Amino acid sequence: MAVNNTIILGIESSCDDTSAAILAGTKILSNVTATQLIHEKYGGVVPELASRAHQENILPVVERAIEEAGITLKDIQAVAFTQGPGLLGSLVIGTSFAKAFALARNIPLLAVHHMKAHILAHFINDTEKEKPTFPFLCLTVSGGHTQIVLVESHLKMSILGKTIDDAAGEAFDKAAKMLGFYYPGGPLIDKFAQLGNPDKFTFSKPRIQGLDFSFSGLKTSILYSIRDAQKENPNFIEENRNDLCASIQKSIVSILIQKLEQAVQQTGVNQVALAGGVSANSELRKVLNGKKMDDWKVFIPKFEYCTDNAAMIAIAGKFLFDSGDFATQAVSAKARMDW
Ligand code: KG4
Ligand code: ZN
To answer: What ligand has the least distance to the C-alpha of 278?
Structure first.
């Protein structure tokens, strides 16, 4: 089979989603994800429970991905997996599975960087969507990361700025927790914000030099505003839920967009892409789309490729495969991983 149509099995298990996908060339044939709902009641991902659930889910998820793709085991020519960064106990499950799979099938193993994969999801073949050309800037916003990345090729990327404390997704989730929402609360803030007034409440803005981000001051500001208001009115949250969500969302999005504007000005690169779970946020998508008026070219991934998924791992693996960058059986999962 020609290199261009290489069939790759992608596996993602860095946090609380167990996912498997089949890629043929740059086209996704299947992308199956089992989301672990067990963490909701704990207010965050419990690492021990996550790795146990990955172990239960991984085989059925891979089997379903193969079945939905309409291929057989012997059609798979390489296996790509998330090596890191992420929760070690979770990563180990996907890594061990991929190593065993590659050994048993005698096929190449491709070790993928989770955050680079979020960015490379933009290159999944989808006829409706135009792809960014190099160089472009990518705002990578997830539960664990917030970065502005200069992407010069499928393999060459550099971080221009990053958060010095909480990630944007974490800011959403922590604010949501203050409002009494279950984990992860980011999507719920987005949902209720649609019905609220984003200018009702204002919170303090970070003053961080360069292209780095900070969200801890905002978190404290939200916490104190709610606490003070509750002293006056114990039903403050219930009575102002939608306006609080809209105002919190506006604050987080404006911090992100302001740094992106700075990055565009600094680099002269006006192609801007979004990646990571928070790119599912409707306000962020709307504001970024609005920047097309300022001559930006904007690229927003399809909803299903925003949050953690194995399709992005498979496409990132394809670029490693094409460059001959194979992992050996000595490869191990890494909770922290150099860029
Ligand atoms: O990339 P991702 O799926 O997992 C990580 O690698 O962290 O990102 C998950 C994060 C969570 O913090 C979640 O609350 C946030 O993305 N998120 C959202 C939305 N959808 C997911 N945050 C705000 N609005 C959304 N619609
Ligand atoms: Zn992610």
So the answer is: 1
